[in-house]
Each structure stands twice: as C-alpha cells, then as structure tokens.
Design goal:
about 170 residues; Glutaredoxin; two-stranded antiparallel sheet; about 30% strand; globular
Amino acid sequence: MIVPGQKLSVNFKMKVVRDGVTSEVGFAELLTRRTIVSIHMRNNTPSCDRQVDALAGCAEAFGRAGYAVLAVSRDTCGSHERYGAKKEIGGSVILVSDPDDLFAKAADAVVDKVLYGRRYRGPARSAFVLGADGTVLAVIEKVDTQRFAEQLRVAVAGLDAGSRGI
C-alpha cells in the first residue's frame, strides 16, 4: 500500500456523482485541495453503509477545514445516484464509481479477499488523505467502520492548516 510522502499516479478518468449529477472527470481534477478518499466495496451493505455514514457525518466539518471528501466504490453511477438520494448525501461527499479499481490500483490497495469461500482480489477498505498534487499525506490502512470518523480526525490531526476543530 502506498505510504505518506509518495505521490499517487492520478492520470485516469472516473465517473462521479456530485449533488445528484453524474459526470466523467480526470481524477486529478478532483484534487483541487487536500482530499480525503475513502474506499468501500458496495453501497447498501451494512459495513459499507456505516463507513459512508461516518464519512458523510463529518464531511461538512472537513469541508470547512479545507478538505474535499470522496467515497469510492465499485458501484455504478446509477447506484450512487439512488444511494445518495436515499442517504441524503449532498455536495459535501462526492460519490465515485470505480468498477475497475483504478484508484485502489494507483494506491497499491488491491488485496486478496475471501467471501463465502470464494477467493478474489478487491480494494482494501481503506482511506487516504491526499494533497492537491496527489502526494499521500496520511493513510488509514484498515478502516474500522465503527470508529471511522475518529480514525479520520486522528489522520488529519497531525497535518498543518485547517485540521483544528474537526
């Protein structure tokens, strides 16, 4: 997994849902300021819902502190549109469709998994704080869905400008 100080390759395109509107953008275009990127597998699953709920719950505070917030999963943009409406996720969280795990591959965060005895590779449930140039500032290698908001606060606490009061 990529570590703080390394620069992430951001030369790929992603489909995003922002305020209920779908568009395709270069990932670098999403990095207009420090950005929190949270990876989960699927919408509408208990653990992933807890992770996204925690992210959405603190997204406005992170926004006020100067951070953009992205939730990345394999879901389609149609799924993200319905999910965002159901969860009332506004513009404070951008939902990113990544069916090919492009972000996870760039972050070296694709891992071996087992579900019901079936082995496969998929994105690690992880989170990253990136600088506007793609430099990794902090990494949460294993998101604890019960404590995710606190993990995020701790991850940004050591960073300068804007981390106070989150």
